[in-house]
């Protein structure tokens, strides 16, 4: 008998005649709501992300204000080149080594979805977001969110996302509550998170 | 006959892992009660988190509806556990993962150590995982010469301090910043005495210490918060980014998951991703949640193994009342509101699962005989039930298990009565006064009036804390 048969056999024996077809799940909680950009900004700021609101044409200028001149920036292959200022050195990911990514000063990505109620952005590995490691190793992450990517709550975000893509939900910079339960920003992930919110 | 026998639910085996304490709760609790620093650290931490959690729960108008949904989903999971696990297995396999089944801790440890050895690696990085602590995986890895590196800050503090975790969410909750600084100074090469005890400075030291290890280790071991049966998706909820490091950088990822962590559908995550962070760290959303389905070519580990762990869970499932302990999403809210936990600390519970949930889960996983005092480690005040995001009726479970606990009748009654009075300031104050008087009078425990006399006849009464329950209650 394999371990699989053993475990499944035990579970079936444990349930005995209680095994039921299924249980009705009451879903009386909110599953949809009004998109509220002000709320998103408020929640992002509350968790120490820096928020910039501007038009798409001004992205490059804004990024040149965030990053010192000469900074090295890694970007996913599908990121619009017009978003990047000429003041920084851009390295496009085409299979970069982890060490190269870690040595960069910053990463710029798009997002798949943003959740207003929780102040969350979600990356799904699309060409303008790239491999997971890209947004992990550099110490500063700039992500660009379009207003139509913002949803009210978690249920709508999940409905828009594909489970078959690797997903990273990000709510503020890396943090820990392990020292006396105080939230401290900056452990292993990027210590600085900038969100550029487009209309 | 044989078939029935082989299919019988079995409790977790002794001699491996961390589900059984070396001593019963009352005597283990005495140390915690006698340690004022521990009590201050715990009191401060749990008070902070209760306030944070209450704040963000107050923001959502449908908290009770979410709890009701979470509870029903978990009831459904338990009723259909075998088929959901088979579905999960099929989906993970189709997405390029390999699924292993482990009947108990020994089998899980063997599977994982064999998988690590097959990669040729001699070091693994680990994301905080209750399941791997439960089975004693680190000890099993070390026994075959593989070094496990805990990467969660609190786990690192515990590991470097040669200590034991004392809280589900914040395993080093019993350590304050000065103690953490001292541990880092003593154990981390290159850290000098200019290090301050500012939390940000301590976090920065951990970041530097682990970065190279993350980049050079080929195998990671994680737990899972959720596994979605209808898609094969695994989810890990974390704060620091060490989880992302472990789930992204290595070539091989091994996830060890208790079989009760499965949820039926992708949509069910919408309930738990709202319940867990608010109940747990008191955040609207934790900084990072990673989700992956099998293997993604060109992104992250290219070998993924999922180990499905029973280790006594089938025995818990067999008890119709007791099985709701398997609904637990390990948020630790019940610990943070428990007056007994706050005063004794997590180590007193003996198991990796401390606090109210530990008091009902550990005895069921091991069989009540092996953790027979734990169902009495409660005053039945009901705060845990109110705090639980999936509405586990812990007081009901405690009473249910007390019926099964083979305690001497007098002791059982007295422990229950003692716990009852601990939660009622007047009575407790009176009883404590009596204890102090009796100490003056001679041998400890002599002459204590009911209801405490029965208990102390066979066990020493835990030292009454310097701060009485009443003082404590007034300052919390
Ligand atoms: S029993 Fe409930 S409150 Fe306690 S850790 Fe589990 S889910 Fe959280």
TrEMBL record, chain A:
InterPro entries: FTHF_cligase-like_sf (IPR024185), LUD_dom (IPR003741), NagB/RpiA_transferase-like (IPR037171). It holds the Pfam family LUD_dom. Residues 98-198 form the LUD domain. This is LUD domain-containing protein.
Automatic annotation (TrEMBL), chain B:
Keywords: 4Fe-4S, Electron transport, Iron, Iron-sulfur, Metal-binding, Repeat, Transport. Pfam families: Fer4_8, LUD_dom, LutB_C. Residues 85-295 form the LUD domain. PROSITE patterns: 4FE4S_FER_1 (PS00198). Residues 443-467 are annotated as: Disordered. Residues 403-476 form the Lactate utilization protein B C-terminal domain. NCBIfam families: LutB/LldF family L-lactate oxidation iron-sulfur protein. PANTHER family: LACTATE UTILIZATION PROTEIN B (PTHR47153). This is Iron-sulfur cluster-binding protein. It comes from Micromonospora qiuiae. The lineage of its organism: Bacteria, Bacillati, Actinomycetota, Actinomycetes, Micromonosporales.
């Amino acid at each position: 008998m394999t371990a699989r048969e053993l475990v499944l056999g035990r579970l079936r024996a444990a349930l005995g005649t209680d095994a039921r077809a299924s249980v009705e799940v009451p879903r009386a909680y909110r599953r949809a709501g009004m998109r509220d950009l002000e709320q998103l900004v408020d929640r992002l700021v509350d968790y120490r992300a820096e928020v910039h609101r501007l038009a798409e044409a001004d992205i490059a200028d804004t990024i040149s204000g965030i990053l010192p001149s000469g900074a090295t920036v890694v970007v996913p292959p599908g990121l619009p080149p017009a978003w990047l200022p000429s003041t920084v050195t851009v390295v496009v990911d085409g299979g970069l080594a982890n060490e190269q990514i870690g040595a960069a000063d910053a990463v710029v990505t798009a997002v798949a979805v943003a959740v207003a109620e929780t102040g969350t952005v979600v990356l799904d590995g699309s060409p303008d977001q790239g491999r997971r490691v890209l947004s992990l190793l550099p110490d500063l992450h700039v992500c660009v969110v379009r207003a139509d990517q913002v949803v009210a709550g978690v249920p709508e975000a999940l409905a828009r996302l594909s489970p078959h893509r690797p997903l990273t939900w990000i709510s503020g910079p890396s943090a820990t509550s392990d020292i006396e339960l105080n939230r401290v920003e900056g452990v292993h992930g990027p210590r600085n998170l900038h969100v550029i919110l487009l209309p | 006959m044989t078939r029935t026998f082989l299919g019988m639910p079995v409790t977790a085996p002794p001699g491996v892992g961390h589900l059984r304490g070396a001593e019963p709760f009352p005597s283990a609790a005495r140390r915690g009660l006698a340690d004022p620093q521990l009590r201050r650290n715990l009191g401060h931490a749990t008070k902070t988190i209760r306030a944070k959690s209450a704040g963000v729960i107050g923001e959502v108008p449908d908290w009770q509806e979410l709890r009701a949904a979470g509870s029903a989903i978990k009831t459904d999971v338990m009723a259909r556990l075998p088929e959901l696990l088979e579905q999960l297995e099929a989906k993970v396999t189709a997405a390029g993962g390999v699924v292993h089944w482990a009947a108990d801790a020994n089998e899980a440890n063997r599977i994982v150590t064999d998988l690590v050895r097959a990669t040729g690696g001699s070091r693994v990085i680990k994301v905080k995982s209750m399941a791997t602590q439960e089975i004693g995986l680190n000890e099993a890895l070390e026994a075959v010469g593989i070094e496990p590196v805990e990467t969660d800050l609190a786990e690192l503090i515990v590991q470097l301090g040669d200590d034991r975790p004392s809280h589900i969410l914040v395993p080093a909750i019993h350590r304050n910043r000065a103690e953490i600084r001292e541990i880092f100074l003593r154990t981390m090469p290159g850290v000098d005495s200019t290090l301050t005890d500012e939390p940000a400075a301590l976090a920065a030291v951990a970041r530097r210490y682990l970065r190279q290890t993350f980049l050079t280790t080929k195998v990671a071991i994680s737990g899972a918060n959720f596994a979605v049966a209808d898609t094969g998706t695994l989810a890990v909820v974390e704060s620091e980014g060490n989880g992302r490091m472990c789930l992204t950088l290595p070539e091989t990822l091994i996830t060890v998951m208790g079989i009760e962590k499965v949820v039926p559908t992708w949509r069910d995550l919408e309930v738990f991703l709202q319940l867990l962070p608010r109940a747990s760290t008191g955040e609207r959303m934790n900084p990072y949640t990673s989700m992956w389905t099998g293997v993604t070519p060109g992104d992250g580990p290219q070998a993924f193994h999922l180990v499905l762990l029973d280790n006594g869970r089938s025995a818990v499932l067999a008890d119709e009342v007791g099985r709701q302990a398997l609904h637990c999403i390990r948020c630790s809210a019940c610990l943070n509101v428990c007056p007994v936990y706050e005063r004794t600390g997590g180590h007193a519970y003996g198991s990796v699962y401390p606090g109210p949930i530990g008091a009902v889960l550990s005895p069921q996983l091991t069989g009540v005989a092996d953790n027979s005092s734990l169902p009495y480690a409660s005053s039945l005040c009901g705060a845990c039930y109110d705090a639980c995001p999936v509405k586990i009726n812990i007081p009901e479970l405690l009473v249910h298990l007390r019926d099964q606990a083979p305690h001497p009748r007098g002791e059982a009654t007295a422990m229950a009565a003692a716990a009852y009075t601990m939660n009622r300031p007047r009575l407790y104050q009176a009883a404590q006064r009596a204890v102090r008087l009796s100490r003056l009078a001679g041998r400890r425990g002599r002459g204590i009036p009911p209801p405490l006399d029965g208990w102390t006849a066979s066990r020493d009464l835990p030292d009454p804390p310097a701060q009485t329950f009443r003082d404590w209650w007034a300052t919390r």
